[in-house]
Amino acid sequence: DAGITQSPRHKVTETGTPVTLRCHQTENHRYMYWYRQDPGHGLRLIHYSYGVKDTDKGEVSDGYSVSRSKTEDFLLTLESATSSQTSVYFCAISSGQGNTEAFFGQGTRLTVV
Amino acid sequence: GDSVTQMEGPVTLSEEAFLTINCTYTATGYPSLFWYVQYPGEGLQLLLKATKADDKGSNKGFEATYRKETTSFHLEKGSVQVSDSAVYFCALSYSGGGADGLTFGKGTHLIIQP
User: Fold this and answer.
1) Closest Cα of chain B to A17: distance in Å?
2) Residue A44: Cβ within 10 Å count
3) Please, which pLDDT band fits residue B96 given cuts at 50, 70 and 90?
């Protein structure tokens, strides 16, 4: 299994509080991604990174920010959590070379009350 | 923009039945196509992929053929097992998951009954 660790695995937080989710990889892959999974929507890309300090927005980036200060860590921050951000969040990594696959973490279930 | 359409289900079959999960896509270029599987409580795992037209991906008895003329990548298996119960996602990418990431369908929940 690819070395991807997401933390925390479960979190309940209150509306308006900041939340940071962490993704850690041991594969030294260049690309890292944050997706959210919601019923009826599949997985949607929030933000991605193509190198240290190099990030870009995905399809549903509003209300989220990211940072990548080291190759192995990619942080997703909800500056002020809302109930619409209740979801399961997945981190993924890819070497991006040719047509290689993306590897996914186990997911973080976030509930905003 | 690019998109992937697949039946959402749930699809319920008996063990040893033949499985087809339809997937069609809309893309401006020539993407790579993927099927991912998600077992309960887990992340997504790559099941199979195809990188160009007429390529066939296969793994664990599952197959899918990249049909450019019909913009389709239907997933098939000749005889399903209870252990195949999961959610299956069709996806496309222009660079194998690198750069811009994957565009997913909404997922098909498959339930296999003994």
Assistant:
1) 26
2) 18
3) very low
